[in-house]
Automatic annotation (TrEMBL):
Species of provenance: Actinopolymorpha singaporensis
Domain Aminoglycoside phosphotransferase: 37-256
Record bears the keyword Transferase: yes
GO molecular function terms listed in the Swiss-Prot or TrEMBL record: transferase activity
Name of the protein this chain belongs to: Phosphotransferase enzyme family protein
Pfam families in the record: APH
Superkingdom of source: Bacteria
Presence of keyword Magnesium: no
Alphabetical list of Gene3D superfamilies matching this protein: 3.90.1200.10
Keywords assigned by UniProt, alphabetized: Transferase
Length: 325
C-alpha cells in the first residue's frame, strides 16, 4: 500500500513473524515469498511490506499497533468492505495478536499519480465515488456495526484549549481565536446533514489504482459514521498543500449528485464548517515545520473560509437535513 511518507513506523516485526501470526489463515495458493521490501510506514504506527510471491504476484503485508484503530481496520475489511460501492483491496488473510496488534495480508494496487498530475475527470470521479459512499443506504447497511460510531473530537473544551496553544506557538492566534470561539456554529452546520459512512483519512495517498485504472481505497483505520464533508475537506486541503488545484465546484456537483442531496446552502455551509475545523484543530503544529510559502497556502485558505462563513454560516435548514430522521 502507498502509505503517507515521513511518519513513524513500527520496528522489530519481521515479515517472517507476521506470516507466522497469520499461520493457517494464509491462502493455500499464495506460494512462497520470493522477496520483500519495506514500504513507507503508516501514520498510525504500522509497518507495511510489499511481498513478491510465486508467479511474480505481489501482495501487501500490514502490521499495525494502533490498538482500537488497528482493530477497526481489521473489522472493516472482514465485515464492511464487501458492502460498499467503492473498491477496496481484498483481504487475503488477517489476524489479531493477544497484545492487540493486527496483521493484514491484502492484494496490491499501484499508486495513483501525484495530485498535480490528476485530470479534472480524475477529481470528479473521486468525488462521485465519495458521494456514493456517503449515500444513506450505505450507512443503513453498516448500522449494525457499533464500532463504527465515532465520538466527537473537535469542538470539545480540551480540543479547543490545545488548539489555542498551538496557534499561539505558530504566531497566528489572532486568526484562529475568533473561529475557535464560534466552534458551536460549525458543529450546528454539520449536524444539518444526515449521518453517513466516512473514510476518515481520505487523501490522494490513500487512493490507489488497480489493473482497470479504477480507484482502490485503502487505510480504513479512521472509518466511521459522521456527516461527510470532512472527507472532502481533507482531500482538498492535502492536495492544495502539495501544489495541486482540484476543481472544487465540479467536484462539489459530482459529490452532491452521487450522494443524492441538493447542492445547496446547507451542504456548502457544512463543508466550510468542516474545512475550518480541520485547519483549526489539525494543521497548526504541522505548519510550524514547513516552508513559509506552503504555510501561507493553509493560512490563506483559513482566512477565506472565515469570510465565506459570514455568508453561509446561518444557512436555512433545507431538505438535505430531513433525511437523518
Amino acid at each position: 500500500m502507498n502509505e503517507r511518507p515521513g511518519t513513524p513506523t513500527t520496528e522489530g516485526h519481521s515479515v517472517e513473524w507476521a506470516l507466522a501470526v497469520l499461520g493457517r489463515d494464509l491462502p493455500p495458493g499464495l506460494g512462497r515469498v520470493r522477496r520483500h521490501r519495506r514500504l513507507a510506514g503508516g501514520a498510525s504506527g504500522s509497518a507495511v511490506h510489499l511481498l513478491s510471491v510465486d508467479g511474480e504476484r505481489e501482495v501487501v503485508l500490514k502490521v499495525s499497533t494502533g490498538g482500537a484503530r488497528a482493530r477497526r481496520e481489521f473489522g472493516f475489511y472482514r465485515e464492511v468492505a464487501a458492502l460498499l460501492p467503492v473498491r477496496t483491496p481484498p483481504l487475503l488473510a488477517g489476524a489479531e495478536t493477544d497484545d492487540g496488534q493486527t496483521v493484514l495480508l491484502l492484494t496490491n494496487a499501484r499508486p495513483a499519480p501525484p495530485p498535480d498530475r490528476w485530470s479534472a475527470r480524475d477529481w470528479e470521479r473521486a468525488a462521485a465515488q465519495l458521494g456514493a459512499l456517503h449515500r444513506p443506504e450505505v450507512a443503513e447497511s453498516v448500522s449494525g456495526f457499533g464500532w463504527l460510531s465515532r465520538a466527537e473530537r473537535d469542538g470539545s473544551a480540551a480540543a479547543a484549549h490545545t488548539a489555542r496553544a498551538a496557534w499561539r506557538r505558530l504566531g497566528h492566534e489572532s486568526l484562529a481565536r475568533p473561529l475557535l470561539d464560534r466552534d458551536g456554529e460549525f458543529g450546528n452546520a454539520l449536524s444539518r446533514l444526515p449521518t453517513c459512512l466516512c473514510h476518515g483519512d481520505w487523501h490522494v495517498d490513500n487512493l490507489l489504482l488497480d489493473a482497470d485504472d479504477e480507484f482502490v481505497w485503502i487505510d480504513w483505520q479512521e472509518a466511521g459514521l459522521d456527516r461527510g464533508p470532512g472527507d472532502l475537506a481533507l482531500l482538498w486541503q492535502r492536495a492544495e498543500f502539495d501544489g495541486a488545484h482540484p476543481p472544487r465546484e465540479a467536484m462539489f456537483a459530482a459529490y452532491a449528485k452521487a450522494r443524492g442531496i441538493p447542492l445547496d446552502a446547507t451542504l456548502r455551509a457544512a463543508t466550510v464548517a468542516a474545512e475550518i475545523r480541520m485547519i483549526l484543530y489539525g494543521w497548526p503544529d504541522h505548519l510550524r515545520a514547513v516552508d513559509p510559502a506552503r504555510r501561507d497556502i493553509v493560512l490563506g485558505r483559513l482566512a477565506r473560509l472565515a469570510a465565506e462563513w459570514e455568508t453561509l454560516g446561518r444557512a436555512p435548514v433545507t431538505a438535505t437535513a430531513v433525511r437523518d430522521g
